[in-house]
Structure formats: structure tokens, C-alpha cells
Write a structure and sequence with these properties.
By secondary structure, the chain is α+β, with helices and mostly antiparallel strands. It has one domain. Helix content is 48%, strand content 17%. The chain is built from 3 helices and 2 strands. Strand 1 and strand 2 form a beta hairpin. Helix 1 crosses helix 2. The protein is extended, with a radius of gyration of 13 Å.
């Protein structure tokens, strides 16, 4: 089975509602993306990399609950 190459990135939007939000910043810098998800999930960088790949629903739940 062929694996697709994907890019991890973090985007920050701001606005009075989701529909009205505008893009403020976006980064694909790996150290910043890993730091963001490590802090969000309360995991080490190594654990975070595995979680983001294997359990995307957990990442979305953490974002929703935060």
C-alpha cells in the first residue's frame, strides 16, 4: 500500500464567529507545529507525532474541548 505524503501545519483564525473569522497566521515549521500539539495534548513530542498520525479524532476532541 502506498502512503500519501502529508504536511502538518497550524493555522490561526480570529473573528467574532467561525463564519466571519479571518486567517491571521499559518505555519508548517515542524518545531512550532510539534510544540503546539505537544502542549495541546499534554504529551511529549514523540508521543504527539504518533497521536496525530494514528488518532486524529483525539486531536480534534482536544481542540474542541480546549
Amino acid at each position: 500500500m502506498r502512503r500519501l505524503k502529508v504536511t502538518d501545519f497550524v493555522a490561526l483564525y480570529r473573528g467574532p464567529t467561525v463564519a466571519e473569522a479571518e486567517l491571521v497566521a499559518v505555519t508548517a515549521e515542524s518545531s512550532l507545529v510539534q510544540k503546539f500539539f505537544s502542549e495541546l495534548l499534554g504529551e511529549t513530542k514523540h508521543q504527539t507525532k504518533d497521536t496525530c498520525r494514528e488518532k486524529p479524532a483525539r486531536v480534534l476532541k482536544a481542540v474542541r474541548d480546549d
